[in-house]
Amino acid sequence: MTLLVISPDYASHLLPLATIAGAWAEAGERVVVATGPATDGIVRRFGFERAELSLGRGSNPGVIRAEDQPRGEDEALRGFFEATRLGPVPTLAFQAAARRDDLLWEPQRVAREVQYLVDRVGPDQVIVDHLAFTARIGLTAARTPYADVVLGHPSALTVAGEVYGYPPAWPQALRPDPADLTALRQQCEVVRDAFTEQWNAALTDLDPGAGASQDAFAETGDVLLLNYPEQLHPPQRTALLPRHAFLGSSVRVEEPDDEVEAWLARGDAPIVYVSLGSFLSVRSDVLSRIAEALRGVEVRVALAAGSTPPEQLGPIPSSWLVRRELPQVTILEAAALAVSHGGNNSVTEAMTAGVPLLLLPLSTDQFAGAAAIETAGLGKVLDANAATPAELRTAAEQLLTMPAEAADRLARLSEDLTRTPGPQRARSAFWASRAGIRHSATDRATRHT
Q1: What separation in angstroms does the CA of 165 have from each of 108, 131, 190, 284, 433?
Q2: Distance between CA atoms of 351 and 338, rounded to whole angstroms?
Q3: How far is it, in rounded angstroms, from Cα 55 to Cα 269?
Q4: Is residue 160 within 8 Å of residue 215, measured between CB atoms?
Q5: Which residues does UniProt call coiled coil (predicted)?
Q6: Strand residues in 44-182 grouped as ranges (E)
Q7: Is the pLDDT of residue 437 over 50?
Q8: Following DSSP, what letter does each residue of 302-371 receive, concatenated?
Q9: For 327, phi and psi rounded to 5 degrees?
């Protein structure tokens, strides 16, 4: 049997998708990953085949640099970075304005390319990143059943009363002005309507009999997989989701790193892992404040500097490990605390390792994800643009000595996520729904003949 995985050409998207696909590979099945050239090395490390497919102009093999992007995309990326310095609402407004170019790039052409790819590969099962909207148009128009994986916070799939790009929850440290929020919601509604119109136009061009969507951001595949712990998701929102399965987390197995293993074996001080992800490591001002804060705490720090030059971090203690990239999963397994922007991979991997989080959210679904961690009492959230080194230090010290009740709750969550890994949950959910998918596809075909 053959599994086809469709992913944008971004490491942060492909890594969890490839990890999920590992459950199929372990069962002896063929795995083909359709993505762009930037992440070819990741596909090969997993031992999968790669089929060429570009879902947008941009790419990110692990650490993104604006100067490595094609013309137009480089300026858009610089604009995004600058918006994060202005605060949450300007960042979300910038992202809303760019949404159609980001998520519906050349939709008819890409959708047809996906259809040709499916014909060529002949998959028995298909898994698609939820944000690969153009690919999902092609699959929907061809009536090809697929599993839709929401890799970010579950709010990336809107439910009744929500509008995409407008956070359904905010952490306490980030409370934008109500008038600014009203304007942001109105902008997101305008973008939603225009995006949905474009989705419908592309879909009906490929399949004239297709029904019109009222909100393309609420559309999902035949199987809905949420790469997120159900324990962190509000039950009232869970009740509004279509039929789904929470995967918990999809934690990859990393290649051995001799330097990291040797560093982990040295010293007895608690380890703090610091990373702002593959995009936001450009915020050297935030990383330097984190570094200043942690220099005043009795800890060893593993810091993934990304696109920030190490010399911009200030004096680096000899006990620290600072590199451009670090094996996040490996270090989290030994860490006592993680400091992060709150990307979904960072959140779910930290929860699996049982590591509390100090979060500094900067964009997209990071605000809702940070609010969930705060509500659960498994971390603290500060304003990335305003938190002082003293405030960061205090928060870190509090999390390193978190109350026993919270520590027990985190340990129980870690145990649950570890006991049944996300890839196993994904494969089980797919097979449990397989008969229903076939029935649904037959019904659709009958209605359109």
Answers
A1: 24, 13, 11, 26, 30
A2: 10
A3: 45
A4: no
A5: none
A6: 49-52, 125-129, 147-150
A7: no
A8: EEE-TTS-GGGG----TT-EEESS--HHHHHTT-SEEEE---HHHHHHHHHHT--EEE---STTHHHHHH
A9: -75, 95
Angle between helix 88-97 and helix 73-86 axes, rounded to 10 deg: 160
Q: Is residue 189's pLDDT more than 70?
A: yes
Q: Helix or strand or coil: residue 246?
A: strand
Q: CA-CA distance, 150 to 426, in Å (whole number)?
A: 12
Domain borders along the chain are: 2-248+421-447, 258-402
Six-digit token pair at 264? 């982990």
Asked if domains 2-248+421-447 and 258-402 share a fold, the reply is yes
**Which tens digits make up the pLDDT trace of 240-269?**
999 999 999 999 999 999 999 999 999 889
CB 246 within 8 A of CB 230: yes
By three-state DSSP, how is residue 81 classified? helix
Q: 120 to each of 35, 206, 250, 358, how far by Cα in Å?
A: 15, 18, 29, 46
C-alpha distances out from residue 126 to 44, 122, 238, 241, 430, Å: 19, 10, 24, 21, 10
Report the distance separating Cα 361 and Cα 126, nearest Å.
32
For residues 276 and 283, the answer to whether their CB atoms sit within 8 Å is yes
Tell whether the torsion through CA atoms of 306, 310, 315 and 320 is positive or negative.
Answer: positive
| Domain 258-402 architecture | 3-Layer(aba) Sandwich (3.40)
| Digit-coded pLDDT (tens) for 371-424 | 999 999 999 999 999 999 999 999 999 999 999 999 999 999 999 999 999 999
Note the CATH number of domain 2-248+421-447: 3.40.50.2000
Pick from 344, 326, 330, 350: which is nearest to 253 by CA? 330
Q: How buried is 33 (Cβ within 10 angstroms: 0-12 exposed, 13-18 middle, 19+ buried)?
A: buried
> How far out from the chain centre does Cα 1 lie?
28
Q: Which residue has the tokens 């879902």?
A: 55
